[in-house]
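Weekly structure sync, notes
Attendees: PL, DS, HV (note-taker this week)

Item 1: Adenylate kinase
DS walked through the input record. Source organism listed as candidate division TA06 bacterium 34_109. Sequence as pasted into the shared doc:
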Amino acid sequence: MKKIVLLGPPGSGKGTQAELLSVKENFIHLATGDLLRNEISNKTELGKKVKSYIEKGLLVPDGMIVDFILDYIRKNDLYKKNVVFDGFPRRNFQAEKLEEELSKNGSGIDKAILIDVDENTIIERLSTRLICSGCKKIYPGNYEDDECFVCHNKLIKRTDDNIDVIKNRIKVYKEETTELLDFYEKKGKLVRIDGNDKPERIFEKIKEVVL
Ligand code: AMP
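Item 1 (cont.): predicted structure, written out as tokens:
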């Protein structure tokens, strides 16, 4: 069973690629941002704590996110399943805790795939994209309908997809998340893929690495 981490700046297409792995290759898509946004919509204790971080484009404190995700892994018994991690880990501490947890149950991260995209493309993508309010599928800004073709719920803009927060998220990525590239490189697990390409082509490259 495979465990894949997708790395890359916000808007690099991690969510889209993780969804393709889930639909076409039977991976469980663990999307940290979606899980946290659900907590916010459901007004849970965690949701109330993380809301202001997400709205500002800041990372949620490590302790909170690590407990939440490791708990999710245990509850859903993800050890013996194919999993694609999208949005977790985002710092070395989180990556270490993830390795520790998976190794307790005889598994570990197989590959960390960096989807590399230039900054102007990211800003353009994030400031125009929409997501489905139901199933969270991501739609590019030029999509012509206003509802999801899968579940027919309304398409909406993420509250953190506005230009000031986008810039902050990119800054946070550069300052805090790029340390993960070294972490996985040292373990011989890092693979870099050019993300300035069509989603279907990127998916083909990911499959070559993963399958
Ligand atoms: P995403 O949907 O992956 O872009 O995540 C949206 C927001 O959720 C981020 O900007 C952070 O505020 C928070 N978040 C998601 N994953 C993590 C993580 N692994 N560590 C800390 N904060 C996170």
